[in-house]
Each structure stands twice: as structure tokens, then as C-alpha cells.
């Protein structure tokens, strides 16, 4: 099974580029399942609305995952309405099932889980224990986890903890694609961060001037996302009939 995972889509630029390119990327990679992290896909660069989500689904995403910005434009009920829009299941206020779904594609069935780290980010429920609880109820061989976290060590430790029990642990949130994609000894594919869909001339997708002002003066600024050329980052994970990963490769498509 070929799983195309796209990292954090940032703002109107990122969303527009994704919408223009997703059908082509799905064909190019022969994607059976397409997962997109949409926590920044609103034009503001934070959160996601119903219309942002429906645009992304319309272009071929099967599941949209989230992160620490999931609640910026929505409340928890948003995530109960559509089972294929996920927010981290370990949020303190998450309702059962908000961060887990099963996609039945006829030939294939896969579960997608969204969890969030706790280091250098809001401290929600421990994702390690949460994963154990979720896996007791998941009845699929192919299981993909979007682990939305800041700390590289927490991401790697979590991936090794899940190794052999899920097909892939794909890190999101830092918006920088890492060069460490690999298959762990138990057959779980892992990358610390899938990267983002955003302008290259930006600070993680945010306009440079605003990001510099925030870092220099520590002043709260209203972020605005950057326009211009950039890239669509993600990974392709291939799994066998038992749900073990047999390949993981980076996706990095430039747009002009
Ligand atoms: Fe993000
Ligand atoms: Fe995030």
C-alpha cells in the first residue's frame, strides 16, 4: 500500500499550492491513501475551517490531521462531525475518536492516529500511554501515526516505542523536513519531520519581517503567511500486506 503524507500546509499560499498539485502528486506516487496535516491550512496560517478542509478533501486527501493549532478556528465538536478530520487524541479535552479514524478503501483498510508531543509545547496527556490505549481498539494492520511534536528526541523515542506496532510514525509541527527517514528494526517507518507546504522565503511559512520582529523584540505580532515560490514536503511510505513498512522516501516538490 502506498501512503502519501503531506506535512503542515501553511496559509493561503500553502493551501493553494497543495490544491493545485495534490492530484498530480497522488498519481506520481501511486497513492492509495493520502494524509495531509492541515493544522495551519487556514489563510491566517493557524487552524482549519470547514471550508479549508472541504477544499483539501476535494483535491484528494483521505484524512486531515492536526496539531497544537487545531482549535484555533474550531472547537472540539468540529472534530466529532467528520471522522476523517483528526486532532491529537491526547489533548486534555479531546473526545473519544477525535484523533483516530479507519479508512476503508476496498482493497485496503488503514487506521490513522494523531497524537501530540509534550516537550516544549502544550502539556497534554502522555502520548506514550495514549498510544497503548488506542492500539487496543484499532483493528487494522496498516496504522499511520502523525506525531505532532517539537522535540526531536521525543519524536525518535516515541517512534521506537511504537516500532513493530504501527506501520509509520511521521513527525510534524517543526515545518522543516528532516533527513533521517528510515525503517526501524520492528518494521515501522519513521521521519522526525515531514516538513511543510510553504514559501521558501519565509520563517516556517510566516512572512520574514513579522517573524524577525517577534524574535527580536519578543512582541506579540499577528502573523501573516508568506507568498511566493516554495515547496510541498512530505513522505511516501510503502507497506506490505502485514502492515510493515518496506520503504519510506521523502517527497519534496518545488513550486514556482
Ligand atoms: Fe504547523
Ligand atoms: Fe504545530
Give an overview of the whole structure:
- It is built from six helices and 13 strands.
- 25% of the residues lie in helices and 27% in strands.
- It has a single domain (2-255), classed as Purple Acid Phosphatase, chain A, domain 2, CATH 3.60.21.10.
- The structure holds fe (ii) ion (2 copies).
- One fe (ii) ion binds next to loops.
Give the helix/strand layout.
Blueprint: E1 2-6, E2 8-9, H1 11-28, E3 33-37, H2 50-58, E4 63-65, H3 76-81, E5 100-104, E6 109-116, H4 127-137, E7 142-148, H5 152-162, E8 168-172, E9 182-183, E10 189-191, E11 196-199, H6 208-217, E12 230-239, E13 245-255
The chain binds fe (ii) ion (FE2) (2 copies).
Features:
single chain, 256 residues, alpha/beta, Purple Acid Phosphatase, chain A, domain 2, seven-stranded mixed beta sheet, six-stranded mixed beta sheet, 6 helices, binds fe (ii) ion
Give a brief rundown of this model.
This protein is an alpha/beta fold and about 260 residues long. The chain has helices at about 10-30, 50-60, 75-80, 125-135, 150-160, 210-215; strands spanning about 1-5, 10, 35, 65, 100-105, 110-115, 140-150, 170, 180-185, 190, 195-200, 230-240, 245-255.
Relevant CATH superfamily:
Metallo-dependent phosphatases
Q: What is the total tally of β strands? A: 13
What's the CATH class, please? Alpha Beta
- Spatial gap, N to C terminus: 31 Å
Using the 3D structure, state the CATH architecture.
4-Layer Sandwich
Which sequence of SSEs, written as H and E, runs from N to C? EEHEHEHEEHEHEEEEHEE
Major sheet characteristics? 7 strands, mixed
Q: Supply Rg.
A: 17 Å
Oligomer: single chain
Helix and strand content put the structural class at: alpha/beta
**What percentage of residues falls in helices of 4 or more residues?**
25-40%
CATH topology: Purple Acid Phosphatase, chain A, domain 2
> How many domains, as an integer?
1
- Give the distinct bound molecules: fe (ii) ion
Overall pLDDT score: 96
Could you name the ranges where pLDDT drops below 50 across 5 or more consecutive residues?
none
In DSSP terms, counting alpha (H) and pi (I) runs of 4 or more, how many helices?
6
Amino acid at each position: 500500500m502506498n501512503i502519501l503524507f503531506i506535512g503542515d500546509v501553511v496559509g493561503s499560499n500553502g493551501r493553494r499550492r497543495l490544491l493545485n498539485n495534490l492530484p498530480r502528486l497522488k498519481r506520481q506516487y501511486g497513492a492509495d491513501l493520502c494524509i495531509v496535516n492541515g493544522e495551519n491550512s487556514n489563510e491566517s496560517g493557524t487552524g482549519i475551517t470547514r471550508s479549508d478542509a472541504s477544499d483539501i478533501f476535494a483535491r484528494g486527501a483521505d484524512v486531515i490531521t492536526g496539531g497544537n493549532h487545531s482549535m484555533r478556528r474550531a472547537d472540539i465538536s468540529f472534530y466529532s462531525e467528520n471522522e476523517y478530520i483528526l486532532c491529537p487524541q491526547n489533548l486534555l479535552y479531546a473526545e473519544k475518536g477525535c484523533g483516530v479514524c479507519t479508512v476503508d478503501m476496498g482493497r485496503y483498510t488503514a487506521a490513522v492516529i494523531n497524537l501530540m508531543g509534550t516537550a516544549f509545547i502544550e502539556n497534554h496527556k502522555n502520548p506514550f500511554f495514549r498510544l497503548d490505549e488506542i492500539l487496543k481498539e484499532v483493528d487494522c494492520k496498516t496504522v499511520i501515526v502523525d506525531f505532532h511534536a517539537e522535540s526531536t528526541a521525543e519524536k525518535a523515542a516515541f517512534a521506537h516505542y511504537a516500532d513493530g506496532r504501527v506501520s509509520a510514525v511521521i513527525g510534524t509541527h517543526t515545518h522543516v523536513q528532516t533527513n533521517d527517514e528510515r525503517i526501524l528494526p520492528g518494521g515501522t517507518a519513521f521521519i522526525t519531520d515531514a516538513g511543510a507546504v510553504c514559501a521558501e522565503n519565509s520563517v516556517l511559512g510566516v512572512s520574514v519581517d513579522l517573524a524577525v520582529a517577534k524574535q527580536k523584540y519578543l512582541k506579540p505580532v499577528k502573523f501573516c503567511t508568506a507568498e511566493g515560490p516554495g515547496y510541498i514536503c512530505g513522505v511516501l511510505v510503502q507497506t506490505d500486506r502485514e502492515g510493515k513498512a518496506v520503504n519510506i522516501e521523502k517527497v519534496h516538490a518545488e513550486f514556482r
